[in-house]
Amino acid sequence: MNKIALITGATSGIGRAVAIRLAQDGINLILCGRRTERLEELKTLLDKQVEIHTLSFDVSEQKAVESALNSLPEEWQAIDYLINNAGNAHGLSPIQDGNIKDWDAMMDINVKGLLYVSRNILPAMIARQRGHVINIGSIAGKETYPNGNVYCASKAAVQAITDGMRMDLNPYGIKVTGIHPGLVETEFSVVRFKGDEERAKNVYKGIDPLTADDIADTIAFVLSRPSHVVLADIVILPTAQASATIVNRK
Ligand code: NDP
Ligand code: 8X3
Questions:
Q1: Is the distance from the beta carbon of residue 139 to the nearest atom of ligand 2 less than 6 Å?
Q2: Whose Cα sits closest to atom 17 in ligand 1?
Q3: How many CB atoms sit inside 10 A of residue 31's CB?
Q4: Which atom of ligand 1 is nearest to the CA of 140?
Q5: Full-prediction pTM beyond 0.95?
Q6: Cα-to-centroid distance, 139 and ligand 2 (Å)
Q7: CA triplet 160, 170, 5: central angle to 5 degrees?
Q8: Topology of the domain comprising 4-236
Q9: Which ligand 2 atom minimizes the distance to the CA of 138?
Q10: Which of 14, 93, 139 to mutate to test the pocket of ligand 2 (most atoms within 8 A of CB)?
């Protein structure tokens, strides 16, 4: 029987690339995101390869998360792989100038959204005594950078939650992996800079950034390890990047 993966944030960037990559491995997919038309487009692209179910909801709205996940038909309920990927940065400002709505969005989506989704899915994994959770953190969760304050805090929280999950779920044979990318060119910076495409492009100027496919390949590798092996915590950087702040631009 095919495995089932649930991917949050499948409408763009890393999540979309992961969906395309896992479909190649014959994994049935529950694709999540707010933009319904993008979910439908991706479903049409992949549904000749594998079974696809789409769920449109905002991860930061606990009731919406609950009702979307509780609506899964029985044949979709045995989720093998949970890919907690939905998230974004909103703004890049010194702490004293921070926009409260941006702070709320980052904590609500990147931290609480991941928790709401996980809380709903983990009990069934525990009952089956198997499963694999992959949380997308960031180099920003390992090292804080100037003006990154609250985004970095949200990703540091993802690191702590990932480590805690690995401890708490260990008795049930559930694997937990944290993936922490550096600069990946997606819609991430366009969202961070509220649609300013020029400013977003400059983030990746003079380097070969990671692509969403690089992260998707890594996730496919992580999921393909034998049952006695878990890749616990992975930092992936473009070759031009040495740390959150050291980037060698040409
Ligand atoms: P994108 O902006 O391309 O994708 C973000 C995804 O998250 C979209 O599919 C979006 O879907 C979804 N999302 C955002 N907010 C919500 C919400 N409230 N409810 C449900 N879904 C939501 O960025 P990336 O692909 O780069 O980002 C994916 C993850 O990778 C994030 O967690 C990000 O922090 C992390 N990351 C990114 C890096 C980078 O350099 N790009 C580096 C390190 C980590 P929709 O809008 O349709 O809801
Ligand atoms: C995304 C990487 O360095 O742009 O998490 O914050 S960075």
A1: yes
A2: 58
A3: 26
A4: 43
A5: yes
A6: 6
A7: 80
A8: Rossmann fold (3.40.50)
A9: 5
A10: 139
List the chain pLDDT tens, one digit each, 250 residues: 899 999 999 999 999 999 999 999 999 999 999 999 999 999 999 999 999 999 999 999 999 999 999 999 999 999 999 999 999 999 999 999 999 999 999 999 999 999 999 999 999 999 999 999 999 999 999 999 999 999 999 999 999 999 999 999 999 999 999 999 999 999 999 999 999 999 999 999 999 999 999 999 999 999 999 999 999 999 999 999 999 999 999 9
Closest residue (by CA) to atom 48 of ligand 1?
A: 34
Q: Which residues are catalytic?
A: 151
Domain ranges across the chain: 4-236
Q: How far apart are CA 93 and CA 11, in angstroms?
A: 27
Say if the ipTM goes beyond 0.95: yes
